Amino acid sequence: PVASLLPFTVTPNRKSASPTSFRLTEKFILLLVFSGFITLCFGAIFFLPDSSKLLSGVFFRSSSVEAETRTGTVSDQNPGTGKDEKILAKIRKDHEKALLEAKDTLQKRPEEINQDIKREKEKVAGQMKGVKADSLPLVQYVRPPGATGHEPSDPDIKEKRAKIKEVFFFLFIIAFSHLKGATIVDALDTLYIMEMYDEFEAATEWVERNLDFNMVFRKKAVELGEKLLPAFKTPTGIPWALLNLKSGIGRNWPWASGGSSILAEYGTLHLEFMHLSALSGRPIFAEKVMNIRKVLNRLDKPQGLYPNYLNPNSGQWGQHHVSVGGLGDSFYEYLLKAWLMSDKSDDEGKKLYYDALQAIEKNLIRKSSGGLTYIAEWKGGLLEHKMGHLTCFAGGMIALGADGAPDDKTGNQMELAAEIARTCHESYARTSMKLGPEAFRFDGGVEAIATRQNEKYFILRPEVIETYMYMWRFTHDPKYRQWGWEAVQALETHCRVEGGYSGVRDVYGSTPNHDDVQQSFFLAETLKYLYLLFSDDDHLALEHWVFNTEAHPLPVIKKPSPELTNHLK
Description:
This protein is mostly helical. The chain is globular, with a radius of gyration of 24 Å. Helix 1 packs parallel to helix 9, helix 6 packs antiparallel against helix 19 and helix 15 runs antiparallel to helix 16. The protein contains 20 helices and 15 strands. Helices cover about 50% and strands about 5% of the residues. The longest helix is centred in the first third of the chain and has 25 residues. A 3-stranded antiparallel beta sheet has the order 5-8-9, with no helix packed on it.
């Protein structure tokens, strides 16, 4: 039976609807999954280059390869077999076909391309007419508690929580009036969590009206998931980083170790694709991400570590660069959260996570002469004593997984999480603005300080606040709320501008030099984690909810009990 995800409950301030329409909470859960796909799609939009050399190196489209990778047989073939030659010949043929299509597209005028897109949309709309939501299987669901909370009893905490909500409301009004786009989609669940139901309803209606989501959201989420499947058309099943949704042609970033796929990209699909299989009753989405595990399990890991680059054609590692920050971070997070989201039934995900963490502790975690614990980067066997702001999420991740640690290591892992949280706080405290730099170093006599100009900027990132939130939930040490409030005050002082909140170019400067950019993750992640830091523990309780890497909460997938089945009949 398919695990259930959709909440069929009544929400406050929701007008009555016809039996065939979706209610507010139903849209909320669907949008959690859908927003993850939207984020991926915005990153996947790319323009075909006019370099034939580049095109021939990174593009292909092969249905036969897709069929092989679904079953996992391509990677298992013995080298030099005739079947391999046939597959490579098919890939070369499809390369040539893709080149011709790309060159034809490049010769068209912009208005002709726009007309093609319009005709394609009309064609899809015509095909979808008359399709009903019940074409997808009935999904049983019991709504986990805590999607919304209640006011804290402590007046000081209540006031701080209200301040964070006020900041979010200020930004949402600006975004809804002038920006829209990805910011609105990314902020939908934060609106709901903060109980801004009227604004949530207005934002949902805007999404339906302006992003062509004229079908029920579950149907649209499945349709979008199917649009992403061609990204997996590689000999190994490791997906491309970029995908042209119209042509189905994928490619990787040219700078990524000879066109390799990136660990934090292909390794950060598991939660969403497992949910999508449960939403649709179609196992193909789960099969795609489980195949990624099979490929990784067959590879030798240097010192037990996972390099950031993997060639999707050969199935071999690229450069031996290992990072728990940028390029690698969320892969490790998703190993742990796959186990948690499965209601702790995914034993393989659990083992992979704790094995990886053991290798990280042994090879990457170091302590400075001043007593600060940090996670270095590994490049071909040599350590670079640098820790990125992105890496600071690891404190929260380690705390989240400490309870399930093997061999009575729970206490050690909680201590490690606390030490990383302290180090990341120091990276904030040692700047003039009390905001953390993009990266900080532990060499040349400095500790937790950025020494290079291109590492001194702050772009409203959430990772440090994320760790504070988890550490508060597991320890209730008041310093984490204190540190979070210090960050709120610094944001108000140095980042708030007339039109919203801006990043700053140098956190060590005496006055802020704004970059004039407000990232959508500031609303979706930073402010959400701050709000939860000052909320009670039963608001999105961690035993019922799992946050994806963009801070969108997904419910733990539980097997439906016989009592639930009878109740839903």
